[in-house]
Design the sequence.
């Protein structure tokens, strides 16, 4: 029991210290995106958005409906529904850039 609590505390602290770009990449993967595409998108967004904006996108995706996680394109659809046109434009540009790198 005590070992389980220690492991849970360590896992929670690791998540808290994760960079916003890493959190975002993990969210994209959780939505079913291929890891190379998730890494590309997170990297592009890391160059274009502030840490606060990256965190906001990751937080938004963490709150998104669990039911949609397995649906292809769910992450992109979720972000496109955000009420921040600058973030949405950055995501669209990152998606185009990463699509051409495939």
Sequence:
């Amino acid at each position: 029991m005590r070992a389980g609590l220690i492991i849970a505390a360590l896992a929670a602290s690791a998540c808290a210290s994760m960079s916003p770009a890493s959190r975002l990449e993990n969210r994209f993967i959780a939505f079913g995106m291929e890891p190379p595409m998730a890494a590309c998108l997170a990297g592009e967004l890391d160059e274009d958005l502030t840490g606060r904006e990256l965190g906001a996108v990751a937080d938004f995706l963490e709150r998104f409906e669990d039911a949609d996680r397995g649906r292809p394109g769910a992450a992109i659809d979720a972000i496109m529904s955000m009420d921040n046109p600058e973030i949405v434009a950055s995501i669209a540009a990152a998606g185009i850039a990463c699509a051409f790198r495939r």
Observations:
- The chain is about 75% helix and 0% strand.
- The chain has one domain: 19-101.
